[in-house]
Amino acid sequence: MKFAIRIKRIYETPNEEDGYRVLVDKLWPRGIKKSDAQLDEWNKTITPSTELRKWFNHDAAKFEEFKKLYKAELQLQKKELARLKFIATAKNVTLVYAAKNMRINHAIILQEVIEKMK
Q1: Of all helices (H) and strands (E), which one includes residue 33?
Q2: Is 22 helix (H, G, I), strand (E, B) or coil?
Q3: Whole-prediction pTM
Q4: How far is CA 95 from each of CA 9, 51, 61, 78, 114, rounded to the nearest angstrom?
Q5: What confidence score (pLDDT) does residue 1 get?
Q6: 3-class SS at 51?
Q7: 34 backbone dihedrals φ, ψ, rounded to 5°
Q8: What value does the CA radius of gyration of the chain take, rounded to a whole number of Å?
Q9: Domain that holds residue 47
Q10: Into how many domains does the chain fold?
Q11: Is 28 helix (H, G, I), strand (E, B) or coil?
Q12: How far apart are the first and last CA of the chain?
């Protein structure tokens, strides 16, 4: 059985298929109780830097540049990314995020980077 790296908004209901749930936002999401989040970890080390996050500000016009800059930041976190990839050898890993836009956010980039790791 092959396990997956998935992404999911924190406002969606957790379920069994999520497997290992990792919040990948630097800031705690608004309106969510820690007990309701059902997280296995809150990983702030693999989130975009505060400066990059503020610069991007979910602006679609900046997404391609944001993607390039965030991937460069992730190069410094290979050990942490490899740890999550390893967990995904035993169960699904769901990267949980709060962004409203499901097509323009850092979790998509993070998922892609982890999946492409050797």
Answers
A1: none
A2: strand
A3: 0.94
A4: 8, 21, 24, 16, 11
A5: 62
A6: helix
A7: -55, -35
A8: 14
A9: 5-116
A10: 1
A11: coil
A12: 19
Q: Which amino acid is at 49?
A: S
Chain length of the chain: 118
Measured from the Cβ of residue 65, the count of other Cβ atoms closer than 10 Å reads 13
DSSP state of 89: T
Share the mean pLDDT of the chain.
95
Instruction: Give the integer Cα–Cα distance in Å for 29 and 6.
Output: 19
Which pLDDT tens digit goes with each residue over 42-93?
Answer: 999 999 999 999 999 999 999 999 999 999 999 999 999 999 999 999 999 9
Residues contacting residue 6 through CB under 8 Å, at least 6 positions apart: 18, 92, 93, 94, 95, 111
Q: How far is the C-alpha of 54 from the C-alpha of 35, rounded, in Å?
A: 28
Nearest partner of 92 among 14, 31, 13, judged by Cα: 14
SS3 state at 9: strand
Question: Which residue, among 49, 61, 38, has the nearest Cα to 106 in the 3D structure?
Answer: 49
